[in-house]
Write a structure and sequence with these properties.
This protein is mainly beta. Helix content is about 10%, strand content about 40%. The chain has 2 helices and 8 strands, in the order βαβαββββββ. It has helices at about 5-10, 25-30, and strands at about 1-5, 20, 35-40, 40-45, 45-60, 60-70, 85-90, 100. The strands form 3 sheets. Strands 3, 4, 5 and 6 form a 4-stranded antiparallel beta sheet that branches. The protein has a two-stranded antiparallel sheet with strand order 1-2. Strands 7-8 form a two-stranded antiparallel sheet. The longest helix has 5 residues, at about 25-30. The protein is globular and about 40 Å long.
Length: about 100
Amino acid sequence: AIKIATLEQSNPARSSGTLVWTPALDEVNQLTAGQEMFSPPIYIRNISWKLTFHSKKEDNIDFMGCFLRCTAEMKPGWACSVVFSLTLVSHDNQENNLRKGIKP
């Protein structure tokens, strides 16, 4: 499920936003190497952003990555950058939450 405040949904030109996405764990666990799962988009400054889970296998070890992607079609010479933090929330123990911040 995705939760975006109604005010945020009505203003795709806003300068910041919060995306809360709770994919079904069984769906995430079923991803095989090379598969991806995308959240619904959130629009910031009229640019579409999505969270992505990506599964990878290397030397018989399974890896899972989570990324924030700019999914807008950019005109030549344009680029998008972002400052964000990502929190993976533990449903068992909040002390096990994993938070990462990204800066340009």
